[in-house]
Every structure is written in structure tokens, then in C-alpha cells.
Amino acid sequence: MFLSIILSISVPFALFFLEIFGPLIVGFLTGELKKISISAINTITGNQFFGLVFSILALFWIMNPIYNRLFLALFAGLLCLKFILRLFKSSYVVLTNGVSWYYLILYFCTLEILPLFVAYYYVLKNFLK
């Protein structure tokens, strides 16, 4: 029970940290901080909107535990939609501001794909035996 509480608090904070500070770190390292900071604003706005949607989903989920699989599928679908929308929206904004493709690919490989690969590998080794 205690581990569940720690995970439910730490995972959203870690994801928020990666989503906000990932592009800012890349912008600082590449010298394109002013152009990339707009994507951080888009990320905060998206998090606020999807936070409201996830709160409503959690309310319905708690009130109807019979439909656990349905709500889990809705949650996973909304989470994927959130990441895909953020990816396209931030990519469009950054590219229209004049940042080259090289920096965008660098960001995706180091701060988007690599952490997901590490998390997938961790779950595969520790939870799916």
C-alpha cells in the first residue's frame, strides 16, 4: 500500500519534470532556449486540459468499479493521445520558429525515446517474469 502511494505521487511528478524541463535543457544546451520555451508553455496548457479530463475519468472510475477494464483502456488511450498531441504540437511550434531538424531529432532520441525504452525494459525485467 505504501509503495502504491509513493508511486502514484512520484510518477506524475517525474513525467511532469521530463515534459517541462526536457525541452528547456535541450534549448539551453543548443542555444535555442528562446525558441524552444514556447513548447514548454504548450506542454503546461496540455497538462492542465488533460488533467481535468483525467480527473473526470477518475471520478467516473471510482463511482463505477465494475467497468475497470473499460476505464483502464480509456485512461491508456487518453494518455497516448496526450503524448501524441504534445509531440505534434510542440514539433510544429518549434519548427516554425526556425529550430533545425537536427535539434528536434536530438531531443526525441535522448529525452523522449530513451526514457521510454528504459522504463519498458525495467517493467519487462521486474514485473513480467
Layout of secondary structure:
Layout: H1 2-30, H2 33-63, H3 68-96, H4 101-126
Helix pairs in contact: 1-2, 1-4, 2-3
Provide a short characterization of the protein structure.
With 129 residues, this protein is an all-alpha fold. It is built from 4 helices and no strands. The chain has helices at residues 2-30, 33-63, 68-96, 101-126.
The major pleated sheet works out as: none
* Shape label: globular
In DSSP terms, counting alpha (H) and pi (I) runs of 4 or more, how many helices? 4
* Termini separation: 22 Å
The proportion of strand residues reads: under 5%
- Gyration radius over CA: 17 Å
The count of strands amounts to: 0
Poorly predicted runs of 5 or more residues: none
Helix content: over 70%
What value does the average pLDDT take?
Answer: 83
Structural class assignment: mainly alpha
The H-and-E topology, N to C, reads as: HHHH
Describe the structure.
It is globular and about 50 Å long. Helix content is 89%, strand content 0%. The chain has helices at residues 2-30, 33-63, 68-96, 101-126. The two termini are 22 Å apart. Helix 1 runs antiparallel to helix 2 (33-63). It is built from four helices and no strands. With 129 residues, the protein is mainly alpha-helical. The model has no long low-confidence stretch (mean pLDDT 83).
